[in-house]
Amino acid sequence: MNHKKSFFQMRIAELPFITIFFFIVMCYNLYFMAPFIFTPAGLTNMVLQMTPFLLLVMGQAAVMLSGNVDLSIGATMVTSSLIMGALINRGVGLGVAIVVALLFCIAIGGINGLLVARCKLMLLPDTTSKIFTLVKLKLPAIVITLVIMKVVIGLGGVFSDGIRWIPLHDLLRVERSTLLTISFLVFLLSLAVWIVLEVTKIGKGIYALGNALNVKELPKVAVILNTVKVYMMSALCAGLAGLFIVFRLGGVSSLMGTGYVELTILAAIIGGISLRGGQGIFVGILIGVLYEQVLRTGLNILGVDVLFARTVILMMLVIFAIINTAQSILIRRAREKVSSQASTTL
Length: 346
Description:
Low-confidence stretches: 1-5
Number of strands: 2
Distance between the termini: 21 Å
Structural class: mainly alpha
Largest sheet: 2 strands, antiparallel
Strand order of the largest sheet: 1-2
Oligomer: single chain
Mean pLDDT: 83
Number of helices: 12
């Protein structure tokens, strides 16, 4: 009973309480400044706009929990959609085109995961400096996914033939009610992933991978499998996000993944996911996604210039990311102190 209680308290402590407080304050102010946001029509628009972003943040958050990062999700989302559009325009059936696009995402995720895992296992962390060790362990993920991102962007250019917009209006007609149903299923999927991460061996392995300063202390097979799993999940979520945007807009754009990468990382952090890895409650990403979407919608309705609004959003996300990172560091230090005192007592 005490173990369950301590586990529950540990997860509750990882919630982004400061973000939640300011999110409530922001909603309260917007309710009077731009009440349309909270009408059924306004809420519906926000749900449809935030669904692909939620999918992307889900994948990014899972990778971050393992102590890594994925810079290729935006490129994967766009290129998989371009592949689907190109296949449809060449007479391939919609179902086959979707399967091929998602298989492409899974393959990219698998390549990312294998390369990152192999590089991490080859590294020799400097145990005299935790900061240096953390930076050194994260560098392979940043470099590898950046290179893969460039490769995937190049593939996207091949499939788009230099065309920025591929219309598919006659082939993809999805009703608004159907899109809302899909959005609800995505929300349920986020809850399912949260449960898997909390109570299953897979989830515990991912958290352990993020907490390990020296991955060589973990079983080699577990490091490779868990890293591949989170990167495949990230790429698959990117592919699903791309499909949702295509079904919503009725076409494929080679520019629809622009600027998503940094937003997914920041949204995950302000949702309580630690940039160091191995810490954070997965369901907290809903707060990060909601904060970004409500702020974006409010600035848009208030008539703020698009470029200036993007700057404001990034600034606010960075501020809360710094605050939540400080909170996660304090929590980690407190737990390390308690565990060290407990071991000394024993």
